[in-house]
Design a protein that fits this description.
CATH topology: Rossmann fold
Number of domains: 1
Shape: globular
Distance between the termini: 41 Å
Number of strands: 7
CATH superfamily: Vaccinia Virus protein VP39
Length: 267
């Protein structure tokens, strides 16, 4: 299944006003389980309420930069992505919101970005799209200050790309099905990160929540855009269950799961 065209269509629908764009961000925060996990890790990060400099590596729609910039006006965020039209769109939106502590720019994560600049590097659902992952991790390490933290969300090798029995992935844009924990740890170490912590996300509750919140509606939208009209009614019925499942997944430790939450620190 091609996921990017659906995301682009949703972006067009919700980009018609500031109110709709903010609503879109709020819906992403509520629906996407990875957002729940990332928000938890950010709240637990000891520097989150202090001034800090951050790289949003693969910023996408900009929802994570928006979440952070609104909660800490003292932080400075460099947000990069490969899609020029998305960068321009985010800069325009953040300017209208008077969020001057975030700057979006076009950037290739496989190339060096900065040196000893960032207290935090955030990379959400990006690494599964990049073959040269060790190069990217190395550049992250180079760009971070001593003591800085790298925070990653990415699929695991336990079905993170939801490949079916024929080997076809729900997410057609992925270059790998997901990371084994030890492979991720070794690649981070090769890049210079001697200290890391890797946890599974999307355990048993999260798998069900993801199907209810994302897989089923996205599959139906892929079949017909007419399903846009029915989406509010679909979520009215299913989201209370998905909400509880998201909470359970975020507040439990999982022996396995289809996602990874990765933290690594620069010495």
């Amino acid at each position: 299944m091609e996921y990017d065209p659906i995301k682009k269509d949703l972006g067009v629908v919700f980009n018609q006003s500031l109110v709709l764009r903010k609503l879109f961000y709020k819906l992403l925060d509520l629906l996407l389980l990875r957002s729940w996990h990332i928000h938890r890790e950010l709240r637990n990060w000891k520097q989150f309420s202090s001034p800090f400099t951050m790289l949003d590596a693969g910023s996408g729609f900009g929802q994570y930069s928006f979440y952070i910039a609104n909660r800490n006006k003292q932080c400075t965020i460099d947000a990069v992505d490969v899609k020029e039209e998305q960068i321009e769109d985010c800069n325009n939106f953040f300017r209208k919101c008077n969020l001057t502590n975030v700057k979006f720019s076009v950037g290739d994560l496989t190339k060096p970005h900065a040196t000893n600049k960032y207290d935090l590097v955030l990379c959400v659902d990006v690494m599964e799209h990049i073959l040269e992952d060790v190069d990217v991790f190395t550049h992250f390490h180079q760009s971070m200050k001593s003591g800085g933290m790298l925070l990653i969300s990415t699929p695991s090798d336990q079905g993170g790309s939801n490949a079916d029995e024929h080997g076809e992935s729900f997410i057609g844009e992925h270059v790998r099905d997901g990371y084994p924990v030890e492979e991720m740890r070794e690649k981070l170490k090769k890049a210079g990160f001697n200290k890391s912590e890797i946890l599974y996300s999307y355990g048993s509750p999260g798998k069900i929540a993801w199907k209810l919140s994302m897989k089923y509606p996205m599959s139906m939208l892929n079949a017909s855009k007419l399903f846009f009209v029915l989406l509010p009614f679909y979520y009215l019925v299913t989201y209370p269950f998905a909400y509880v499942l998201n909470w359970l997944d975020t507040n439990q430790t999982h022996k396995t799961g289809t996602g990874l939450i990765v933290k690594a620190w620069k010495d």
